[in-house]
## 1
Amino acid sequence: MKLNSGLLAVSIAIALASPAILAAQPEPDAAPTPFVAELFGTGSVKVGPAHGTVFAVGGGSIGQPLYEAFIEAAGGPDALILDVPNNSIGKPMSTAPESSGEAWRKHGARNVQVLFTQSREVADSDAFVAIIKQAKGIWFEGGRQYRVMEAYAGTKTERAFSEVLERGGVIGGSSAGMAVLGDFLVRGAPSEDNYILDYPGFEKGLGYLRNTATDMHVVARERLPDLTTVTARYPKVLGISADEGTAWVVHGDVGRIIGRSKAFVYNRGGLTDPDVPYLTLYPGDTYNLYTRQVVSRAADRSPVKEQFIASLFKKYDAPELGGATVLVAENGDVFVDHSFGIPRQERYMPRTTSPQFPIGDIQKVFTSLCSQVPAEAPTGEGEKRPVFHSSPLEACVARLSGPVGMHKTTVPPGSHEIVSDVDELYRFELGLEDSSTWPKAEYSKGWTVDTFDGVQRVAAYATKTGERAAFVRIPSRHATVIILANDPHADARAMSERILEKLL
């Protein structure tokens, strides 16, 4: 049953402001608005929920493990989860689209209902909020975050959402759904232009993560510098972000990172990585948002130590060798994600994501899978124009990128070779871990299968003799080692085996 209001949205005047007004940006030295001065002017406060869980996902393709983690936090597959699709609905509608909430049903939730109105009068009624009092999970969809605030901020519905946490439930969202979870709306302008930052009068989020500004899609859309705008202007604000398919799972003041990529912390005057304004966190890491300190690193639990990796790849610090990157992960925890000889990238992009490396014969893994995955037919309202690709290989990459959220993996113009990075190949590997990513495909095609140290090894190399790049998986351990180098003489296979000896 869907709980959709029969009333159309009640518009607010600012939403009809002229494009010129909406495009205005606050000056860096402008005085804070009253909301910001009141919220952030008295020092740090406890950040996370006293009870329950906040589940903040950086957008994009989410992945089965994140769906499962949210469902578990809600109390299991039979718990009532309310899907709130306002962010994704840009025009006045009396009911939500039929597809709302379907992703949760597809991924194992058996009791999903849709909560939707664009009327503040309805959102402030006891009848509308009655179902929220039974819910164990609230999920805000992506889109434009001002739409949720426009409909629910200051209403009985907003107060009922908070009670879900107080009962020990979970509140989460992806993309714009993540943005509303913090106190500060980084991109809250009532506009379809999501490049507008820190818009006066529209800075207030729902506040489930206090004294915090949240951002999303930060690697996929190269947004990594943007939170510095907020933390420079409001030094007491903690900025946190997550890349696509990656979540902050916050209990109390401690957040654990899970998913397909990285998360980032912007703490004005605090610890950062070298040459960038943020601290990087990896799946398996935990961070205290109140003390603003790392609690633990997945790398600390790894049998593959940083010093060992540094010694193995030391020679690639020399720029003339073209650089190298390596990623080691097991059971969803990323132990190693390092670059060697890679200069700082534009817009502070991770040096393991950019630049790209040619992957050579590893692309047979892609083409073998593409031969089994049919091209998707146009879906949705109306007819979609077909997307044309310059080559079958480019079309193959595009077809496989969507389900796992690859954005940088491409076939350069005039080339016949895929270029990628260790971070995106890890996304691809996680897709292979989940048989529902490409249903009915035989995932073993394109790989060499043998035994290493008594366990099955599934591997692909850039060359027949194992030079330049290695993509190695140990399915029984849910472990992977990925090495990419520009040195044609790099013995990637031998290096991967030395790493596996430590890992196994």
## 2
Amino acid sequence: MIRSMFAAVTALRNHQTFMDTVANNIANVNTTGFKAGRIDFEDVLNQTLRGAVAPTATHGGVNAAQVGLGVAIAGIDNFQTQGDLQPTGKVTDLAIQGDGFFNLSDGNQILYTRDGSFDVGSDGKLVSPSTGLKVEGWTADNTGAIDTGQPIGDITIPFNQMSPPTQSTNISIAGNLDSRAADGTAVETVMTVFDSLGSPHNISLRFVKVPNANAWDWEASTTDASIVTTNPLASGTVTFDTAGQPQSDPTQPDGVMDLSFNNGAADATGTTAINLFMSSMTGFAQQSTVNVEKQDGHDAGSLTSFTIGPDGTVNGIFSNGFNQPLARIALSRFTNPGGLTRVGDNSFQLSVNSGLPINGAPGDQGFGTVNSGNLEMSNANLAQQFTDMIRAERGFQANSRVITTSDELLQELLRLKQ
């Protein structure tokens, strides 16, 4: 009689915990990156009324007779399944598609989260604005190279950073020179080159039709006073075959301009050799159009904005149109992610059963990718939670009835004395 009451009492207490778990899941149905919990029950100590008997030559065996003494909580699991992605349009909002956790540092320890609602602080650090924890990853060097084999550290968006200038060394000319043009016809275009200080200089490139041939003489010249090289800067001839294709080696320059600049400090930039390639030109019977197809070199620029790619690379966009990697966000995965311990603020920390973190970059083998402009929603399923709520309620009601019935049996026992 008393056993049944005590068994029901343990059930009431643990079904209340069941209800607490369901309530927490429902409360966090709109919490970014939240991972729902699931309670598991187990039976507890069983009282043996009769032990098991082994079979004999004349009789079969007899099973033990045991009475259970209630229920206990075996554990509350963390469901680390993927939540739906919600578009936000904010570049620093990040969602992980696949496995992995963001690394957040408070200066003393690393915490792990799926909540990618980040922002840039006044110090340029990429942080979680609700907690101030700093997002960890790898910082690029001055050339934009990122070594993911190094330890992770704080990610900084250097809005005061300048993109250094690069001097021009190769220019590719494209377009068409009309094979029908009259002898002596001239076609001209202007190209801009940059010295080692990033200063732009205009150079004219003039083509003149050669008599009685599908060929054009060309000459590069300038009126820029800071270019002290004597005109013409370079010259040559581009000849086309019967199919209108240039008769030149695309791997070899058709001309080289050895330019010396004076930007107010003599010999400050030295001599720049610029190779001219014309293998992309054609000599068809079409209107003449000449332009710069591509060239290296650019002026200096300041960081104006940035993007974050699926591989976690933070790419800086500079005012000169130049893009360069600034950093790369790190992810961590675990042998047993369900073993991580919740510490609030949508974060987890290591436990003795989670395993040590395995660091990697988004897109690496075993790691998910990063979706910029999205956030991962809670994985709590309302339909499942309301079903669990009914289970908790009915379980609580049933065990309450066990206590009531046990009490009535005790009352009947007491009435026997009357």
